Amino acid sequence: MPFEQEAKPKTPKADTVAIPVAAVAAVGRPPLAAAAAIIATVPVPMPAPVPVPVPEPVVLDPVRFEMLSLSAGQEGKEADSHYDRCNVPIASAGQAIARVDEPARTELGPNTAWAPDGVTVVATASGQVRTHESRIWIDEVLGIAGDVDFKTGNVDYARDICISGCVRDLFKVTCGGTIRVVRDVEAAEVRAAIDLLVTGAISGKEKGHCYAGHDVHARYIRNASVDAGNDVVAVNEISQSRVICGGRVRLDRGAIMAGHITAVGGVTCHSLGCSSDSQTIIEAGVDPALRSLAAEHAPQIDADIKQIAKIRETVEPLMRHQKGLTAQQKEKATELLYNAAEVEERNQATIDLLRKAHAAAAARCKEEIDVSGTIESGVVIRFRGVEAEVPSGIRGPMRIVPRAVGGSRQIVVTHRGSASGFGLETRQVPDPVMDALERVIATKAATLAA
Predict the structure, then answer these.
(1) What is the count of structural domains for the chain?
(2) I need a labelling partner for 144 at 20 to 30 A (CA). Which of 88, 232, 383, 388 fits?
(3) Which domain holds residue 337?
(4) What is the spatial order of strands in the sheet that 90-91 belongs to?
(5) What number of CA atoms fall less than 13 Å from residue 88's CA on the CB side?
(6) Are 211 and 191 in contact (CB under 8 A)?
(7) What pLDDT, in 10s, does the model give residues 305-330?
């Protein structure tokens, strides 16, 4: 059997040329088409790309600002403590805030303008001074990134303040507008002319004080003192705190546990009291601001009114029979009447002030406590001139109000949807200050009627 050798590819001889397949395929085509087919198969070397020089960008240094504004709370004098060393730059309208070395490159933002010298920047509105690279502007809302602590010091600002962190222990924040705190207020003193809005808790640690001309909102209020001109609203809880408000205390789903609540516009909550020995006191329809004003003025005015009435009651009949009086008696009687009229005139402005305050308090006064859940035993309920202690737990929903019963006022519990109710053992509490105010108001009304 013959040996079959493996076929080997034939290589062209030296004097022969390899013809591309495309050239073979081009046989029989028109000349131009055949040439194009052959050229398409021949690799054409491309020249290397020539690099194009790119100029480097010109980076200018930021404009240098020589800051001139004071920080809030310093007022140009040495701080009394580390707490008072505020590092937040604040400017007032019309105040020179900075000098610049390159005015042509400086961009003026909102609430800024050039001074006549062309190199000094002046604030056209009050606010926080801010700079970025070559730009300077005034932000009317004071924004504090982070906490109010030793980095910022105490803050005193005429407009709104937004704090992204906490207000730490023993620091003070004072504002002519609304204060917003994203986290918590600790054992600090916070005063807002309008609202105080706290996303987290007001946790006073028995040292914190919060004041607002209008509303206070927080998730929790614990171991703090809170005073609001209008409503106090908490989401979950008010505990171990002293709360005074000119509106209503509202915790629609929350609890009031221990502490002392005084609300001119009443109270709404889910539950009242706690099982511990800590006492819970709820006052509704009682205005501490009016009471304080009355305590300052009403007793003295009431005494003056009584004295004036007594003088006139004694002297005026005598003056109607002047013929029987001596010259000295006539002079003395005239002097007494003159002094009485002078005192009455002096008291007139204060009486008008008390009358207006009394009318305003009466307009917003609501003697009612609404509880949707339960009231624990031991809770003390107070209205004007009466108080009662809840002897045992009561399940709601319920409303607690004072009612006239047999010539006196009694605290009554009525369940929602029912006209009937039951009375709590009520104690009558004398209130000489408010009684004096009522007499002053009544005397004023009688004088106007006359």
Answers:
(1) 2
(2) 232
(3) 288-364+435-449
(4) 90-91, 127-132, 135-139, 107-108
(5) 29
(6) yes
(7) 888 888 888 887 777 777 777 888 88
